[in-house]
Write a structure and sequence with these properties.
Length: 87
Amino acid sequence: SESLSREVVDFVQRLRREDVFKKPGVAETLDWAKCLVSLDALELNPEVITDTLGALLKYQDDIVRFQGSDAKALLDEVRLSMTNAGA
């Protein structure tokens, strides 16, 4: 969906600003999007992010870091940004 696409792009852009070993690029973003579509995700949520981070991040330390509050914080920023853009 268009909404999921926006969330994915915004989430990855914000993730790329974080201190990770290997920042996700276009290939990782497309792989992640394919995973989300395969899971019939309609929107991002902390659970689906946790379940699919391996497609986006390549290092276990980064995956562990973003399996919880860090991913939720990024998602909250994405949602706030989308809300403000629509206002």
